[in-house]
Amino acid sequence: MVVGELAYERDVIVIGGGPGGYHAAIRAAQLGRNVTLVEQNQLGGICLNKGCIPSKILTQSAEKFTSFQEGENWGLEAGDISFNADKFQQYKQTKIEQLRSGIEALCQANKIEILNGSAFFLSEDKVGIENGDKFDVFRFKNAIIATGGRPEKPLWARQISDRVLDQHSISDLSEIPDKLLIYGSDYIALEIGMAYQALGSKVTLILDDGKEEFDFDQSICRELKRILKKKKIDVVRNSDVLELQRMDDMLTVTFTLTGKIDTISGTHLFVSTPIRPNTNQLGLSRIGVEQCAAGYIKVDYQSRTTQNHIYAIGDVTEGPALAVKAIKQGKTAAEAISGIKSESDFHFIPVVAHTQPPIASAGLTEKEAINMGYDIEIGQFSLSANGFSTLTGKKEGFIKVISCKEKQVFLGIHMVGTGAIELISAGITALEMAARDEDLIFPNYPHPSVNEGLLEAVEALRNQAIHIPPKSLKAQKIKV
Amino acid sequence: MVVGELAYERDVIVIGGGPGGYHAAIRAAQLGRNVTLVEQNQLGGICLNKGCIPSKILTQSAEKFTSFQEGENWGLEAGDISFNADKFQQYKQTKIEQLRSGIEALCQANKIEILNGSAFFLSEDKVGIENGDKFDVFRFKNAIIATGGRPEKPLWARQISDRVLDQHSISDLSEIPDKLLIYGSDYIALEIGMAYQALGSKVTLILDDGKEEFDFDQSICRELKRILKKKKIDVVRNSDVLELQRMDDMLTVTFTLTGKIDTISGTHLFVSTPIRPNTNQLGLSRIGVEQCAAGYIKVDYQSRTTQNHIYAIGDVTEGPALAVKAIKQGKTAAEAISGIKSESDFHFIPVVAHTQPPIASAGLTEKEAINMGYDIEIGQFSLSANGFSTLTGKKEGFIKVISCKEKQVFLGIHMVGTGAIELISAGITALEMAARDEDLIFPNYPHPSVNEGLLEAVEALRNQAIHIPPKSLKAQKIKV
C-alpha cells in the first residue's frame, strides 16, 4: 500500500455519516460543493442505528402497551395483552433500514459520494480512507469531522460484559429484563427505565456519581419523584458504587449509602454514561487540530477547529451529546464553508425525554437562573387542571416558565406531560425571539388542548391563570 | 310575581356559563369585581357537556382503537378488540362531571355566585333571573352576554328527528352507526366521520351547500382526498340536497349532482351546520344592544356592545363558533370592564381537527393570501420524510408555511399529521410575533421529532430542507 500516490480532489470531505455528518454533507451539496461522505459502519450513525431511533421505537412501543392496558376505561376491550420481543425487533429493524435507505437516496439525489471506510488525516489537506485492503487518498479544501462518540462505562462496570448494557448495546436487547438496574440520571436512564417498567420489568434507578437528583429542573425532579413512586420504580440516591459482581443469572451492585454498605441485585444492568469523543484514530495532532484535556475538539460558534479550513461537529465537540447539536453544527459548518455567516447557539437547546409522561425542557433551570444572578419570577401550571389532559386521563405533569423580573423575558421553559415534546417548540420559539409574557398571553390556543397549559403557566406569572384558584396563585408567588 | 321590587346589586352579571362565560367571570373576579354567573342548564355550557369535550373523548377513543389494531406491528399482541359503547359513555360522563365540578370549585374559590336560571334584560342596568316559580332582579354595573348558540339544521333535515343528529345531540349517540351519512365540510364533520369510521361505521361525507372542498387550505384538502380514500370514506361533492326520507331503519338523502338526481342511504345522518346565536329571550331590543341581520350581537375588539357597559362574547357574536374565541373575548371583556386595555384578535386563531391524522391551521390559506393581493412563497414538507413520523408509522401529512415575499413574514401555517395540534402553537407564536423565516430556522428542534417538520417546511422556503431531494425542492418553487 503506497500512500499519497494519487489523490482524488474534493471540495468537502465529511468524516462520519451520523445525523451531524449527513446534514453537513447535504447542506454543503445544496450550496454547490462537491462532497464525499465517509462512514465506517452504517449511514445514520449511532443515532439511527443504535441510539435515538431504536430507543424511540422502544419508548413508543412501551407507551402503546400502557395505552392498551388503560383501554378498558375507554370502552376498548381486548384479550390478554402481551409483548412479542421478536416482532418488536423486526419492526425496529424495518424502520431503521427504511430510514437508512432514505438517507442514502437523499445523498445520491444531492450527488454526494458515499465511501465506506475509516478515515484519518495524512496532512492538513489530505485524508486517507481505508477499507479492508483498499486505501485511497483524498485532497480536500474543507473537512468536517463528525466521528461521534462512544459511551464510557465507569471502571466498576467494565469487568463484566454479559448483561451489562450501555447506550449503544441496549437497543439489541431482545428480551424484557426481569429485574433491570439502571445507573444514570439523564434522560436516557429515565427513558429506558420507564419503557422497561411499562413492558414488565422491575426497575431500580441508581443515580450516577452519587447524585441526589436527575439532570432536570427541580420541579421536574419533584414530579419525577411522585411519578416513579407510582410506577414502583425505586431510586437509589447519594450512593457511591463500589463494585459489580455476577453470580449465575444475577448481577449485584455494591454501594455505600450514608456511610453504610448496601447491595442491590438485578438480572440486567443498563449504564447511561458520558460520551467520549471518537478522535483517537484521526491523527489530529499531526495537522494542528487542537483538543481540550477531555479529548473534545476545540471549535468556535461556526464549528471551525483551530485549523481554519477544518470543522468538527457533534459528539467530538464539547457540549451535550445530542443529535440536535450535531445537526445544527453540521449545517452551520457547511454554510461557513460556503461563505455564509450562520452560527450555532445552544442556549435554548431542547432536552427531551420520551418517558411516560414525556419531559421537554429548554433554557435555564430555576437553580441555574438564580446562580447566574437573575432575579426571577416563576409561573407554573399543573396539567391536572387542564381540560384536555383531564379528558385523556393523562393528568400528570405541569408547565413551568422562568422569567427575568427586570427585563421580563423568558429564561427557561420546562414541561412534563403528554404533548410536551411537540409543545416545547412554542416555548423555544418564544425563548429565541426574546418573548415577554404578553407575547405568549396574546395568542389564541386551541381548545381543548395541552397548549392551553403553556398559556396558563405564563398567566400564572401575572396571577391570572384561570384554572388556578386564587390561594394557590398567591402561594406560588410567595414561594418564589 | 312582582318584578323589580327588590334588586340585588352586582358589579358584573355574566349570562351563560360556557367556556366564554366562566373565563369572563373568573377573570373579572380576579380583578376584584363582585360577579354573578347565570346558567340555565349546566356549567361548562355546550362545549363541556355536548360539544368540544365529548367529541374529543370520542376522537381519542377512536384513535386508541386504531392504535390497538396496529399494535401487532409493534410486537403488541391482544385478542379480538371490540368497542363497548356503554363503557365509553360511562367514561365520557365521568370526565364531563369531573371537569364540571372543577369549574364549580374554581368559581367558588373566586367567590363567584352561581345562579341557575334564565336571564333577560329588564332595563339597561337590570336583569331578571327566572328559575321555576322563583324570580329575582339584579342591578348590575356591567353585564356580559355569553348565551352561546345552537346548530340550525337545513330545512330538509328538520322533518325527521329520529337518527338525524347535530353537533349537540351526536354526543349522546350510544351505538356505532352501521352506515353514517355526514352533511358538512368543517372540522366537526371530519372529526365525527373519521372517528366513527375508525370504530366501524361505513361513512359517507356530503359536502354542505354544494361545496367542492372542505373548509381548509387547498393542500390540506388534497391530502384529505388521499386519506379519506384510503379509509374508504366516500365524499359527495358539488351536490344539492333535495330531501330526506325515512323508511324503516334507513334514511335516504336525495340530491342533484351535475344535473342528475341521485340518492344515498344510511342508518344515521349527522348534520354539522352553522351555529345561530341564542339571543331571542334576552330582550336586547329593549335596551339598545344592536344585532346584525343574522342575529349576532355587534361588538368591538373589546367585546363591547352598542351599549357601552354591556359586553357580548362567544357564539352570540360573529366569527367562528369556537371555544377559543369565546374564551379570549371573555377575558378581554372582563379586563375592559376593569379598565385594562386588552383586546381580542383572531387573525391567527387556530382551527384544529382531532382527525386521524389531526389537522391544525392558523392564519391565511394559500387562496386567501393570493386573493388579498399578497405575493407569496410557500414551503412545504411531507411528514413521510420525517424521522419521527417514520418510526411511529404515522407518515401521513405535511407542514406548510405561507410567507409574504415582500416583507418575509409568515401569513399562514397549516399542518396535517400526528402532533400537529400541539405543534401549531409554535407556528402561532411565530405568526403573532411577526417572525421571519430566520426566526424559525435559527432555533434548535428536538431530534427525532415531528417538530423538525416545521423547520424543514421553513427551510423549503429557501430551497434548503435537508430531507427534500433537490429536484422536489425546485419543483415546489416552480409550482408557486
UniProtKB/TrEMBL annotation, chains A, B:
- Every FAD/NAD(P)-binding domain range: 11-330
- UniProt cross-references to InterPro entries, sorted A to Z: Class-I_Pyr_Nuc-Dis_Oxidored, FAD/NAD-bd_sf, FAD/NAD-binding_dom, FAD/NAD-linked_Rdtase_dimer_sf, Lipoamide_DH, Pyr_nuc-diS_OxRdtase, Pyr_nucl-diS_OxRdtase_dimer, Pyr_OxRdtase_I_AS
Pfam families per UniProt: Pyr_redox_2, Pyr_redox_dim
Q: Which PROSITE patterns match?
A: PYRIDINE_REDOX_1 (PS00076)
Q: Where is the active site?
A: H447
Q: Which residues form the Pyridine nucleotide-disulphide oxidoreductase dimerisation domain?
A: 349-457
Known catalytic reactions: N(6)-[(R)-dihydrolipoyl]-L-lysyl-[protein] + NAD(+) = N(6)-[(R)-lipoyl]-L-lysyl-[protein] + NADH + H(+)
Listed cofactors:
FAD
* EC number(s) from the headed UniProt entry: 1.8.1.4
Which pairs of Cys residues are joined through disulfide bonds in the record?
C47-C52
**Cofactor binding mode and count:** Binds 1 FAD per subunit.
Superkingdom, taxonomy of origin: Bacteria
| Keyword terms of this UniProt record | Disulfide bond, FAD, Flavoprotein, NAD, Nucleotide-binding, Oxidoreductase, Redox-active center
What more does the record tell us? The active site is a redox-active disulfide bond.
Name the chain's protein.
Answer: Dihydrolipoyl dehydrogenase
The lineage, from the top, is: Bacteria, Bacillati, Bacillota, Bacilli, Bacillales
